[in-house]
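Quarterly update, task 2.4: flavin-adenine dinucleotide-bound model.
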Amino acid sequence: MSEFSLELSEDQLQIQKWVHDFAEQVMRPAAHEWDEREETPWPIIEEASRIGLYSFDFMIQCFADPGGLLMPIANEELAWGDAGLGLAIFGSALGLAGIAANGTPEQLLEWGPQCFGTPDHIQLAAFAVSEADAGSDVSSLRTRAEYDEAKDEWVINGTKTWITNGGIADLHVVVATVDPGLGSRGQASFIVPPGTPGLSAGQKFKKMGIRASHTGEVVLDGVRVPGHCLLGGKEKLDERLARAREGKRSNSQAAMATFEATRPSVGAQALGIARAAYEYSLDYAKQRKAFGRLIIENQGIAFKIADMKTRIDASRMLVWRAAWMGRTGKAFTAGEGSMSKLYAGETAVWVTEQAIQIMGGYGYIREHPVERWHRDSKIYTIFEGTSEIQRLIIARAVSGIHIK
Ligand SMILES: Cc1cc2nc3c(=O)[nH]c(=O)nc-3n(C[C@H](O)[C@H](O)[C@H](O)COP(=O)(O)OP(=O)(O)OC[C@H]3O[C@@H](n4cnc5c(N)ncnc54)[C@H](O)[C@@H]3O)c2cc1C
């Protein structure tokens, strides 16, 4: 039994500093521009690829970290730099997580590197679940995948919406229903390889925040992918469907398995935004004078700072715990992954709002980054499961009752 410790290892500290330096030197100076442009920040992704931060190898290094903390540490620093740019870099990892959660080791090795490409040939990946009528309610997906046995091909039809990197990605991981009668238990994930005919970009959405990250529709019209693009393989799918048809429990639902793995990382991004806003407003409060004294000398301001710091540290503890549990195979008996994302997401919204309040009028204008951080923070109570859905998961887990 190892001694309990929250001290990071030398390796973890080194990576943390490496990502922080990139966030400080490359992302921070570019953040405002890309938020205004609302375009994919190719020069930033290229730079991240050049230093190996945007790469399959780095992701594998994070997945392999024995305590599981490297992924949240890297995500916190990226989002501290800028959440929109951070998601432009981390978005491809969502596709990779879809492959890692549902694919075989061979599929991970074949398709994982293609989620990122190389510095000379950068590629993007996307993880496409949501549809216009199926966001929180993943069981109602209408995108259909049908097996063409004669050709050993899957034919996919449907439209996905609000997909990070959707339509501009080289590789799409698409969750589709193979047996609509079984709800989420009748779903499977498919790789749609680069250049597959029938996949096209629908509309690109204009957003409130994380505007450097592309969010768009993906149209799948008679898309044909080879049999080996079914993640996990046909035999496993057939077994799973047979169990579901007999009414037996199945513990692997395609989209859910991915979300469990990615939630602490998403929570870590929210944490990064909150920390950025906290640090910025603390500095400000120690310089700004009103009524002849520093505003931080008023309890009304100082106590906000104390609460911000407390909630941020509590978020980090929840995020680290969930990441450690995921990596070491502990069962999420109380929805700990959901807790981390719920608390960190709501903390980011709250902390960034407090930061605006502390800065008064300066907090509300675009000369300072806190209004952007507030806009960026809001997505963290919505995507990868809304706050309400996280509460549902936690409440069901702790009560054993199927709360609606
Ligand atoms: C910028 C952005 C990026 C995204 N990226 C991706 C991506 O890469 N891949 C992907 O697949 N999806 C992505 N999404 C989609 C995102 O995951 C969904 O928007 C989210 O799951 C919510 O679904 P919805 O919008 O349909 O809301 P709805 O499900 O319609 O929910 C509306 C409201 O009702 C509440 N609600 C719903 N059901 C319940 C319930 N049972 N109990 C209590 N409250 C309930 C919700 O919490 C919410 O407040 C992205 C979305 C955005 C905005």
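Highlight for this quarter: The longest strand covers residues 153-164.
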